TrEMBL record:
Residues 9-186 form the SGNH hydrolase-type esterase domain. SUPFAM superfamilies: SGNH hydrolase. PANTHER family: SGNH HYDROLASE-TYPE ESTERASE DOMAIN-CONTAINING PROTEIN, THIOESTERASE 1/PROTEASE 1/LYSOPHOSPHOLIPASE L1. It comes from the Bacteria. Pfam families: Lipase_GDSL_2. It comes from Aminipila terrae. This is SGNH hydrolase-type esterase domain-containing protein. Coiled coil: none annotated. InterPro entries: Ester_Hydrolysis_Enzymes, SGNH_hydro, SGNH_hydro_sf. One of its GO terms (molecular function) is phosphatidylcholine lysophospholipase activity.
Amino acid sequence: MAGKLKIVFIGNSIINGFPYDRNQEFVSLYRDASGNDVINKGVNGDTVRGVMGRFSQDVLAEKPDIVIILVGTNEFIYKEASPEQCMKDIINLIELAQNQGIEPVLMTPIPLEPTMAKSRWMVCDDVDYEEVQQQIIQLKKQINTYGRENHIRVIDAYYAFSEFVSMVGEQTAYYDGIHPTREGHRFLAEIVGNFL
């Protein structure tokens, strides 16, 4: 696709850039680097059901060329959905976009650092971050398989961020075991830029 693209990023706090200002998250960094018309529709704590509820207003009404969808961590932390349920809802979003001539691009959720998440994020006994990590891995596999079989482009942020963590270390990559640091956001912006 040549020329300036209009792209909506929709999803959870990773898109929104928690805990940093909006201009420091990877979506804004990508917009600045690419010159594309980029709209951030990230909401802290959001799930795929939340995205579904606002998809018409936040994506379809904007008439973008591309929508980039990132969900699938809060669902498991809050025990709202299994990976299979989450994938079904993602497929619904894909179809909604395609029906309006919008290309859906999926991002896999980034990995957690369970020990850090337990001490720095939600310190409560009923969240098993090891289990959440396994569910993220299951969803990542389903997203990649669906993308391959249905010709949907996938940004495997899980794989890329895992490589980033192995290079720079957990303290540099993670703010709290769930959300990226500023360095992590800069890395994600590069990944998205290279992909698109």
